[in-house]
Specification:
Layout lengths: L6 E4 L3 H12 L6 E4 L31 H6 L2 E4 L4 E5 L4 E4 L4 E3 L2 E4 L3 E3 L12 E2 L4 H11 L5 E4 L3 H12 L4 E5 L6 H18 L3 E4 L2 E6 L3 E6 L4 E3 L2 E4 L3 E3 L2 H5 L4 E2 L2 E4 L10 E3 L4 E5 L4 E3 L4 H15 L11 E6 L2 E7 L6 E7 L4 E8 L2 E8 L5 H10 L5 H5 L10
Parallel strand pairs: 1-2, 1-7, 2-3, 7-20, 9-16, 10-11, 10-16, 11-12, 19-21
Antiparallel strand pairs: 4-5, 5-6, 8-17, 13-14, 14-15, 18-19, 21-22, 23-24, 24-27, 25-26, 26-27
Helix pairs in contact: 1-7
Length: 406
């Protein structure tokens, strides 16, 4: 791409906004347009289930950049605008107000939408999803008068929201369709740690699958598939997210792993179009497959990488996936990619919630997590990226340095 060609970024979230400013840092001098559906300045989403939801921090603290930075760096931020059509041949994006944007390079960073439940009673008032600052505002206000809150889904969003609402003084029941919270990503051993954490702080955990919502105009109960009826006057559905691929599909782009297929340079099969963040199913050379990651760090790092490659750097994106979560008094960091594993081993004290956990496959550490221990990040990353075979007994022995566990 010529450094003076216009760049259009569709998606005003963390990946898109990060890329916009990184393009300037990379020397791109042409027009940069950032199309955002929300009225707010682009912001980071993790606070929506944590400090912002609890009312401890203003939304301004989550802004990627203050308003004057967009003007200073010549980035055109089109707020409350949506891209509806894409013509890769003409290199043109059509917006919902009827206007067109021509581009030399296009970055699709449309992110994900919260997954809803389509069950009997799903349209009742009092059922909330959480994806935007407006969603968090609505949920916080509704929780103020709620007597019985149900959080459906015990993944990251569900457990974080349950923790925050409990910290706000509300009675919360967390409904999990697995035996332990977070079991699908962490396994039952570490999931049990989170179950005990939540119960210790007053969260009620119920296992089951939601079959329907009951109520007249407003939800009054959640009914499980075994017939159990749980009274509720506020429900939060946190069962994951769906990549927003409609624009890409309309442009004829390939979809993999439910996201936009891109190579290791975050480039689609159309050389002028890139994708980053939640939406990108990116080829990862080390894993030998397309992977899609829905986390804060990935949005930032892929935004930076996409900007670099739009500017001509030709740098492959090979970063090891990383994410974090803070719930009550348990903070953790996770590094790696473990869609399947054979064994989970632990160094440290699960009861005290101070430990390292390792997910092993074929005798190698495919993912590692530090929980309330903060001095091991680099060692865990090196261990995961080395792909060396390890001795599980030495891995769990606190007297053996991690570098010597192979």
């Amino acid at each position: 791409m010529n450094q003076h060609d216009p760049v259009v970024i569709v998606g005003g979230g963390l990946a898109g906004a990060t890329a916009a400013f990184a393009l300037r840092e990379r020397g791109v001098e042409g027009r940069i347009v950032l199309v955002s559906e929300e009225p707010q300045l682009p912001y980071e989403r993790p606070p929506l289930s944590k400090a912002y939801l609890r009312g401890e921090e203003p939304i301004e603290k989550a802004f990627v950049k203050p308003a004057d930075e967009y003007e200073r760096q010549g980035i055109e931020l089109l707020r409350e605008r949506r891209a509806v059509q894409l013509d890769p041949v003409a290199r043109r994006v059509n917006l919902d107000d009827g206007s067109d944007l021509s581009y030399g390079a296009l970055l699709i960073a449309t992110g994900s939408a919260p997954r809803a439940l389509t069950l009997a009673g799903s349209d009742l008032d009092g059922i909330h999803l959480l994806r935007t600052a407006a969603d968090a505002d609505s949920l916080r206000a509704a929780a103020g008068n709620a007597k019985a809150i149900m959080v459906i889904g015990a993944g990251w969003i569900g457990t974080e929201v349950a923790a925050s609402l409990t910290q706000m003084g509300h009675a919360v029941t967390l409904i999990s369709d697995t035996d332990q919270p977070l079991e699908r990503v962490l396994g039952p051993e570490i999931g049990a740690v989170y179950a005990e954490l939540h119960r210790a702080h007053g969260v009620t955990i119920t296992n089951g699958t939601v079959a329907a919502f009951e109520g007249e105009r407003t939800v009054s109960a959640v009914r499980l598939d075994d017939g159990t009826r749980l009274p509720a006057d506020l429900v939060v559905v946190g069962i994951g997210a769906i990549p927003r691929t409609k624009l890409a599909l309309r442009g004829g782009l390939e979809i993999k792993q439910d996201g936009v297929a891109v190579d290791e340079y975050l480039r689609t099969a159309v050389p002028s179009i890139y994708a980053a963040g939640d939406i990108a199913a990116a080829w990862h050379p080390r894993f030998g497959r397309h992977i899609r990651v829905e986390h804060w760090d990935n949005a930032i790092q892929q935004g930076l990488a996409a900007a670099a490659n739009i500017a001509g750097a030709n740098e492959p994106y090979t970063r090891t996936p990383y994410f974090y979560s803070d719930q009550f008094d348990l903070g953790m960091e996770y590094r790696g990619y473990a869609p399947q594993w054979g064994q989970v081993v632990v160094r440290g004290d699960l009861a005290k919630r101070e430990f390292l956990a390792f997910w092993l496959a074929d005798g190698r550490v495919v993912a590692a997590m530090n929980a309330n221990l903060w001095d091991y990040g680099d060692e865990l990353t090196e261990l995961v990226e080395s792909e060396r075979r390890v001795d599980p007994n030495r891995l769990t022995d606190p007297d053996v340095p991690l570098a010597e566990a192979a």
